[in-house]
Design a protein that fits this description.
Number of helices: 12
Strand order of the largest sheet: 11-12-9-15-16
Low-confidence stretches: 241-257, 319-328
Radius of gyration: 24 Å
Distance between the termini: 46 Å
Helix content: 25-40%
Mean pLDDT: 82
Structural class: alpha+beta
Shape: globular
Oligomer: single chain
Number of strands: 17
Largest sheet: 5 strands, antiparallel
Order of helices and strands: HHHHHHHHHHHHEEEEEEEEEEEEEEEEE
Length: 450
């Protein structure tokens, strides 16, 4: 959903703004079909959705799916109305038992393109208890349902802004920072009623300042930010007030045509691309992000190449502390095997045990356990308490509903298939929606003999 809906919104915005879309929409029908097929394949009996394939139905995930499918239908895409209706019915039932006001507000937002849910009265009754996130989501729902209380919610929302953006301190998961999502929802709520509201421009500028390279902190944040910014662009006919303010302050040269050059940065062989606008290179900061597994103990080599010849200054040196997990990380991850990796034989099966422990309890954790290139994971061999197990050619992936202070023990089996000497990257654990909450173990090596 975090990729599917932003792509739909991007195509719609490009068309409405008169921007050529041939390249963007070349494979669009296939992408839309794949997205819809995937979403409906994950729908549970009874109409709801969970976080993982075999997870229980979850009110927030059901709301996300219903909101995305409803948006796709609004944009003119063919949606299975029966399946969508089942999702809406399930969500209305879940709303009755939902105690968390942030989640309830998002449920109301997800249902706001259709008939109003009576549960919204619980939010209207006491707005003083609502976070900025709940205020924004409820304001959107109320104004779409034509409720007069929407004006008061927008007023409260605007008053809650701090330094050009909004924060939510009492989100469902206490460890999660949802400032980007909250600000995006606030921009959407204000844009739908008054695209020229004075709080919108600084909020969009703040959202843009939070980018990490060509994306935001997580797929959820990226989807929310794109949704809000494109929605405002369409509402204003493409005249983003935040860019106009930047031109007035002469902070950027956005009034001039962009002269873009593609730069490829490589870290130990793994590469990433970014676009540099030559109109404004001196006052801009460009970031390129790599996965933690691309780093290795000791020195790390960085290289770059450009589309055309121009000077490019690269600053900084990357080093990691080899041998032990980083003490500043949130997880400790360790792997052991039932046979020494330094003396494997062709055809041998090896049991790999991965132990994960956090400094506190976290929800929705992904554990990566790389394997030697000369081995293959035996499909279906995952053991332990997890919501999903994937046997990829280079690593085992475990998706956990939760992990934390109590050690979590996971296992899988692999088979030695090719003789040789191999390095084994360090295992890692990361909160799926906040990459800053992560941890790595130690790298290893393996020898497979004929």
């Amino acid at each position: 959903m975090a990729k599917f809906v932003p792509n739909l919104l991007t195509a719609d915005a490009l068309e409405k703004l008169g921007i050529p879309t041939d390249k963007f929409t070349a494979d669009f029908p296939k992408m839309v079909k794949a997205g819809l097929d995937r979403l409906f394949a994950l729908q549970r009996e009874g109409g709801g959705w969970g976080w993982f394939d075999k997870d229980n139905v979850d009110s927030f995930m059901t709301a996300c799916a219903v909101a995305g499918l409803t948006e796709a239908k609004r944009l003119g895409y063919a949606i299975d109305s029966v399946r969508l209706g089942e999702g809406e019915s399930c969500l209305r039932q879940l709303a009755k038992d939902e105690k968390d006001l942030n989640r309830l507000a998002y449920i109301c937002f997800a249902l706001s393109r259709g008939e109003a849910t009576p549960e919204v009265e619980r939010l209207v009754a006491d707005p003083e208890k609502l976070s900025s996130y709940a205020l924004a989501a409820t304001a959107l729902a109320l104004q779409r349902w034509g409720r007069p209380e929407a004006a008061d919610f927008r007023r409260r929302l605007a008053a809650a802004a701090t330094n050009g953006h909004w924060v939510t301190t009492n989100w469902y998961y206490k460890w999660e920072d949802v400032a980007i999502e909250t600000t995006a929802l606030a921009v959407a709520a204000l844009s739908e009623s008054d695209p020229k509201h004075p709080a919108i421009a600084p909020a969009i500028e703040w959202l843009l300042s939070q980018r990490q390279g060509n994306r935001w902190r997580s797929t959820k944040d990226t989807a929310a930010a794109i949704h809000a910014i494109l929605g405002h662009a369409v509402a204003t006919g493409g005249k983003l007030d935040s860019l106009s303010r930047a031109v007035e302050r002469k902070e950027t040269n956005v009034g001039a045509p962009q002269v873009l050059r593609r730069v490829r940065l490589a870290l130990n062989g793994a590469s990433n691309e970014l676009l540099v606008d030559l109109n404004n290179p001196a006052s801009s900061r460009f970031e390129c992000h790599f996965a933690g597994r691309d780093l290795k103990p000791g020195e790390n080599r960085i290289g770059f190449s450009s589309q055309d010849d121009f000077e490019f200054e690269l600053e900084g040196v990357l080093r990691t502390t080899g041998g032990k997990p980083n003490p500043g990380t949130r997880f400790t991850v360790a792997t052991t095997t039932d046979k020494p990796l330094g003396g494997l034989r062709l055809g041998e099966e090896i049991v790999v045990t991965v132990t994960v422990q956090g400094d506190t309890d976290y929800d929705y954790v992904m554990v990566e356990a790389p394997i030697p290139a000369g081995c293959e994971i035996i499909n279906g061999s995952g053991e332990g308490v997890f919501s999903r197990f994937e046997a990829r050619y280079e690593q085992a992936l475990f998706y956990l509903r939760s992990a934390g202070i109590k050690p979590c023990v996971l296992k899988f089996r692999m088979r030695a298939g090719f003789a040789g000497r191999y390095s084994v990257p360090a295992p890692s654990a990361v909160v799926m929606y906040d990459e800053s909450l992560s941890g790595r173990g130690t790298s290893n090596s393996a020898v497979i003999r004929p």
